[in-house]
Write a structure and sequence with these properties.
The chain has 207 residues and is α/β, with parallel strands linked by helices. Helix content is 40%, strand content 13%. The chain contains eight helices and seven strands, in the order αααββαβαβαβαβαβ.
C-alpha cells in the first residue's frame, strides 16, 4: 500500500481487505468511491455498519439469525405455516438465504455454522451438531422427522454429512442427502435457483 496515503485511508483499505472476496485493489476502489461520495452517504454506511449486530441473536431452535428468541421461519412452523418435521441442515446462514430463494422448500432449517475441518481445528464441538441431536430427541415421534443434509458437496461438507448421518442413525430419523445437482466443491450461496430446486427435488436416502 502506498505510504503517501493518509493514515485514515490506509486503515480503511486494510479493513476492507480483510473482508471475504475483497482483495487489496478492490478495497482501494471502495475507499476511493467513498472518498468521493457525499458525506451523507458515508454517514449512512457508518451507521449501518455500527448497528449491524444491534438487536440480533441466534434462533434458539435452528441457530439462524433472528431478532427475537426464535427466527421467523421457526415461528411460522409453530403456526403450521411450514413443515416442522422436515429439517434442512446447512452449513451457513447464507445457505438458508439461497434455499429460500427457490420457493421450493417449505420445511425448517438447522444451521451448523461451519463444517468439519480438522486441519482448521473445527471439530463437532465447534459446530451446532449436538444441538441438532438434542433437537431430534425433543420430537415425540422422531420417525416422522426427515432431516435433509444440505451441506456443501466438498470434502468438508461430505464429511460433515456422514458424521451427522452416523449420529442420527440410532435415533431412527429419516435422513436424506441433497441431490447432486450441485457441483463438487461449490457453495450453496453461489448456486442458481433452478440448480437448488432440482437438488431439493432429487434428494435421496443417505447411505
Amino acid at each position: 500500500m502506498s505510504s503517501f496515503l493518509p493514515q485514515s485511508i490506509r486503515a480503511l483499505i486494510d479493513e476492507f481487505s480483510r473482508l471475504p472476496g475483497v482483495g487489496p485493489k478492490s478495497a482501494q476502489r471502495l475507499v476511493m468511491h467513498l472518498l468521493h461520495a457525499p458525506d451523507s452517504r458515508v454517514q449512512e454506511l457508518s451507521r449501518a455498519v455500527g448497528s449491524l449486530k444491534t438487536g440480533l441473536q441466534f434462533c434458539s431452535v435452528c441457530w439462524n439469525i433472528a431478532e427475537e428468541e426464535k427466527c421467523q421461519i421457526c415461528l411460522n412452523a409453530e403456526m403450521s405455516l411450514r413443515q416442522a418435521t422436515q429439517i434442512c441442515v446447512v452449513e451457513e446462514i447464507l445457505d438458508v438465504v439461497a434455499l429460500e430463494k427457490t420457493s421450493e422448500y417449505k420445511g425448517v432449517y438447522h444451521v451448523l455454522h461451519g463444517a468439519l475441518s480438522p486441519v482448521d481445528g473445527i471439530g463437532p464441538e465447534q459446530l451446532k451438531i449436538q444441538a441438532l441431536v438434542d433437537r431430534m430427541k425433543s420430537f415425540e415421534n422422531v420417525s416422522d422427522v426427515e432431516v435433509i443434509l444440505a451441506t456443501n458437496p466438498g470434502l468438508e461438507g461430505e464429511s460433515t454429512a456422514l458424521y451427522i448421518m452416523k449420529l442420527l442413525g440410532p435415533l431412527n430419523v429419516n435422513v436424506t442427502r441433497i441431490a447432486r445437482g450441485l457441483p463438487v466443491g461449490g457453495d450453496l450461496d453461489y448456486a442458481d435457483e433452478l440448480t437448488l430446486t432440482r437438488a431439493l427435488q432429487g434428494r435421496a436416502a443417505y447411505r
